[in-house]
Write a structure and sequence with these properties.
The complex is a heterodimer of chains A (about 800) and B (about 170). Helices cover about 30% and strands about 20% of the residues of chain A. By secondary structure, chain A is of the alpha+beta class. Chain B is built from four helices and seven strands; from the N terminus they run βααββββββαα. Chain B has helices at about 15-20, 25-30, 115-145, 165-170; strands at about 1-10, 35-40, 45-50, 55-70, 75-80, 85-100, 100-115. Classes of the chains: A alpha+beta (about 800), B alpha+beta (about 170).
């Protein structure tokens, strides 16, 4: 019988009650006395020199309170990149200043170069339009294509960067010659050139920020759509505006999705704070959907050539990758690490391949900044690997299942250090592959294919065996790799006098379900009802510290911090119990919410101990402080390495090129599972986004840098009808060896593993249908691309 | 985008040439043109009302003539700002060549849009630009030669050329 409580139970998500009944409180829901409205003036050209901005007309319009331009912020700090990446020759990356508002030049369509604050939204909007008309911006040739950007030294996104190159990174550079030699000597080499399509994150809630300033104390408050309020506080306070961190509170209330795009600090947050101080009134801003398309950090956008060298029997010898990664006009906070350490270190996959080398050139262009988006580098790595392996299998006439089996790292090899620097602690890739074959009824495929053929459809099956490094953390490791922050997390467990519990977590929930799952862990560990545990997050004035939620790290890092804090609570509880029960501390055991003296029936409940800690009439005050509250910071020893096998089946209509995903099977190893229902939800969402990338979504700039896919009329999001019922299995569990919960993280898995499974299935369908000339179709595999490939 | 087209105008090349230099003709031919002031030498300032897909805007901008080769051709360029709607710019390289009693007019149009028009209406831009160019040159043809169904106005002699309002005006 499945558990109905605590770890492993499918407890219903408590946050859904407010989300599903319209009672959530998002930034834009907050109305403050005396509030004012900011509207940003954004560049309509991709690249231009700001010759003059005449603010006087706008400033004198009705209701206008203040006008800001880049000039007003030219002396404050830039919004920094969080990782320093060195080029192959050892030189540090080029790091242009990212100003609060564009100054001197505008560098992408949507680049904010001025802001208007007014009494009403309509007045601010009118004045912003006037300001746009009064701005003289000389349009310069746009730099859009990455190859052209690097080749043309005269046309520069940033005047001080001659070749528009941020860095030319090699991983691992010392292995390069050996990899080249291995490929040269190999019996077979498969080459594949592919594009990992640029995506707009499209969180349901657009970005929004409210700045407040309290003249009486000099305190600031920023309410904003953030996945990591402490990081935002650090960036906007210490790096940009020069506000002491202890004078700024950042609150990220209910946040309606982020997928990475709300990790970062954006200039709008600095403007509403500066404006709030100037006006001594709250200043609010909420992005329109068009602004989200133009100015949220986009994802992916890699152009890659990958080579797979192997024996004729499919045994891998080497992978070599050359990638150009588009970073857009400015370095967003994680932009430099996404195409490098989150991508290059995964280029061995779950395979025992001896030679791997990755070269990444990251390029500035006149497009919106590109940064981590669900999966962040790992989907790009997985897509390249799993597509080139599929292509190799076709070239050599090998079975893709057998080729994976032959090359998988085996269970006796862990811990396993890859040639690209990661140490996988545990896994069982054969088990997840076998499970996927079982739940996907691969044996029955031929019958399903024949049935599809009867209906005039080409049916294909695609496989992807993926691995990722997540629980993004170990500070000592990321420090070596160029991170400018630590990546631990923190939690405070506060047991109140009456025995109920508040847990303050550094992880921020913006849809994941932390409020439910963390409460399950606390309830299990302390033997209390889940309902008596409250999870508090997203407010720097309440939580101890935190690095936020991204990189599938909430449970594997912050969840462990929670358990560490609980361990301290239990340890203190034992001391109190020992005193009250007149026993030795080492004789006290804690189980099912009860402190008891081993071998006796003497016991105190958890509630009694808590009450005693706050009403310490009978208490060892000379050796123990009253109160029952503990904080723990947790910095793991390693990444976690979830892995799995995905099988996708598609039907292709050869007449129209339309692809239908008719089945999708996921066999994942996430280590121990805290809440199966939440895990399934995460996989569903991730696979949905992966299918969106594979079939629908694409971000298109024309050659003048205009965003042509700037609304849902032109940017195709996957809809319910585009995705199948998912078949999700997580029964293969090799618990993480270095965190006490044995968890690995599941938030990004679906988005990482699914795109190559879909594309491999499409190619398979076309080959089975006789269209064997089709070697590859770039994502999104739209009807027109499939049709053209068939007829190409 | 770029598009190329041509049409035969039943008028002498010098009549066609004079027509294209006439601000009144330009104003009548630019679809949605609300005002046009200036001269061929200095260029024109124009206000044009247009609706592209979901975006309706009044564009203010300049129209200029360049590369003037009398009787042979010229380049017409326009650039308009539509405020929050974005901007549009385009040029038409126009060539004239005598063909029988008439003039073969060829044109290559280049059009670009930016801002909200590009974000919301990009699917529509190509067909919109083609429609606009077709309308312009159709109106131009009408202005020069008159509509197809216009009856001959002088009795007794079969006119070799129809007279549009421009030709009537200039007595050509």
């Amino acid at each position: 019988m499945p558990k109905d409580h605590g770890i492993g139970a499918s407890s219903k998500r408590r946050e859904d009650i407010r989300f599903l009944t319209g009672r959530g409180v998002y930034t834009d829901d907050m109305n403050l006395h005396g509030q004012t409205y900011a509207v940003f003036v954004r560049s309509q050209v991709a690249h231009g020199r700001i010759k003059s901005i005449n603010t006087s007309n706008a400033a004198s319009m009705p209701g206008v309170l203040a006008v800001f331009t880049g000039e007003d912020f030219k002396d404050v700090g830039g919004n920094p990149a969080g990782w320093l990446i060195n080029s192959r020759d050892g030189t540090p990356m080029r790091e242009p200043k990212r100003p609060v508002l564009a100054h001197g030049k505008v560098r992408h369509v949507g680049d904010a170069y001025a802001a208007v604050v007014a009494e009403s939204y309509a007045e601010a909007k009118d004045a912003a339009e006037q300001l746009a008309a009064d701005s003289d911006i000389e349009e310069l040739p746009a730099i859009i294509d990455m190859a052209a950007a690097v080749a043309n030294a005269s046309n520069r996104v940033h005047d001080e960067i001659p070749d528009n190159l941020c860095y030319d990174w090699g991983w691992i550079e010392d292995n390069r010659a050996a990899v080249d030699a291995a490929i040269k000597a190999a019996p077979h080499v498969t080459v594949l050139e592919l594009v990992n399509n640029r995506l707009v994150p499209n969180a349901m809630e657009p970005r929004a920020s409210i700045g407040e300033y309290f003249p009486g104390t000099g305190d600031y408050k920023l309410t904003t759509t953030s996945q990591n309020p402490h990081l935002t506080r650090l960036l906007v306070a210490a790096f940009v505006l020069g506000i002491p961190e202890n004078k700024l509170t950042v609150v990220a209330p209910d946040v309606g999705g982020g997928f990475g795009s709300k990790i970062y600090h954006y200039g709008e947050e600095a403007v509403v704070l500066a404006a709030a101080k100037k006006l001594a009134r709250p200043v609010r801003w909420t992005a329109e959907r068009s602004e989200s398309f133009l100015s949220d950090a986009h994802g992916r956008d890699h152009v890659t050539k990958i080579e797979l060298a192997c024996e004729k029997d499919g045994t891998f010898i080497a992978f070599r990758t050359e990638t150009m990664a588009n970073v857009g006009a400015y370095l967003s906070n994680f932009a430099t690490v996404t195409p490098t350490f989150l991508h290059g270190t995964l280029m061995a996959g779950p395979y025992k391949v001896p030679n791997v080398y990755v070269n990444v050139k990251t390029v500035f262009t006149n497009t919106a900044p590109v940064d981590a988006y669900r999966g962040a580098g790992r989907p790009e790595a997985t897509y390249s690997l799993e597509r080139v392996i599929d292509k190799m299998c076709r070239e050599l006439g090998l079975d893709p299942f057998e080729v994976r089996r032959k090359n998988f790292i085996t269970t006796d090899m862990f811990p396993y250090t890859t040639p690209v620097g990661l140490a996988y602690d545990t896994g069982n890739y054969h088990a997840t592959l076998d499970k996927a074959i079982e739940i996907g009824n691969v044996a029955g495929f031929e019958a399903r294919r024949a049935a599809s053929a009867k209906r005039g459809k080409l049916r294909g099956m695609g496989l992807s065996t993926w691995i990722e490094a997540c629980g993004i953390a170990p500070s000592h490791l990321v420090g070596v790799l160029g991170a400018r922050v630590g990546l631990y997390d923190a939690a405070t467990v506060r047991v109140n006098a009456t025995g109920n519990i508040s847990v303050m977590t550094g992880a921020h929930s913006h849809g994941q379900g932390h409020e439910t799952v963390f409460a399950q862990i606390v309830a299990e560990k302390l033997g209390v009802p889940e309902a008596s545990v409250e999870i508090v997050h997203g407010d720097t004035s309440k939580i101890p510290f935190g690095m936020g939620s991204y990189g599938s790290r909430s449970l594997a890092v912050c969840g462990v911090a929670v358990t560490k804090a609980i361990d301290k609570i239990v340890a203190k509880g034992k001391k109190i119990a020992a005193h009250m029960l007149e026993a030795a501390e080492e004789d006290i055991t804690f189980e099912n919410g009860s402190f008891s003296v081993a071998g006796t029936d003497k016991a105190k409940t958890f509630g009694e101990i808590a009450f005693s800690a706050y009403v310490p009439h009978n208490y060892p005050l000379e050796t123990l402080e009253p109160g029952l509250e503990e904080t723990a910071f947790y910095d793991p020893a390693n990444f976690t390495y979830p892995a799995g096998a995905y099988i996708c089946e598609v039907e292709v209509d050869a007449e129209t090129g339309k692809v239908d995903v008719v089945a999708f099977h996921c066999a994942d190893d996430f280590g121990n599972i805290m809440n199966p229902m939440v895990v399934e939800g995460q996989v569903h969402g991730g696979v949905g986004q992966g299918i969106g990338q594979a079939l629908c979504e694409n971000t298109t700039y024309d050659d003048t840098g205009q965003l042509l896919t700037g609304s849902y009329m032109d940017y195709a999001m996957p809809r319910a009808g585009d995705v199948p019922f998912y078949n999700v299995d997580y029964s293969c569990q090799t618990p993480c060896t270095h965190n006490p919960l044995g968890v690995k993280g599941c938030g990004e898995a679906g988005a990482i593993g699914s795109p190559p499974a879909v594309v491999n299935a499409v190619i398979d369908a076309l080959h089975r249908g006789g269209h064997t000339h089709v070697k590859h179709i770039d994502m999104p595999v739209s009807p027109s691309r499939v049709w053209q490939a068939i007829h190409g | 985008m770029q598009l190329t087209d041509e049409r035969l105008i039943r008028a002498h090349t010098d009549t066609v040439w004079r027509a294209i230099l006439d601000p009144a003709v330009l104003k009548a031919c630019i679809p949605g043109c609300e005002s046009l002031t200036g001269s061929p030498e200095t260029g024109y300032e124009a206000v044009v009302l247009q609706k592209i897909g979901p975006v309706s805007a009044r564009f203010t901008g300049v129209v200029s003539l360049s590369d003037l080769r009398p009787g042979e051709g010229l380049t017409l360029s326009g650039e308009g700002k539509g405020g929050a709607a974005g901007f549009a710019k385009g040029s038409a390289q126009v060539g004239f060549a005598p063909e029988g009693d008439g003039t073969r007019l060829t044109y290559t149009v280049d059009a670009n849009v930016g801002g909200k028009i590009a974000q919301l209406g990009s699917r529509l831009i190509d067909s919109f630009a083609k429609k606009l160019a077709d309308q312009f040159f159709e109106r131009f043809q009408m202005a020069v030669e008159g509509p197809e169904e216009e009856p001959a106005e002088a009795e007794g002699e079969a006119p070799t050329e129809k007279k549009g309002w421009f030709k009537r005006l200039v007595g050509g």
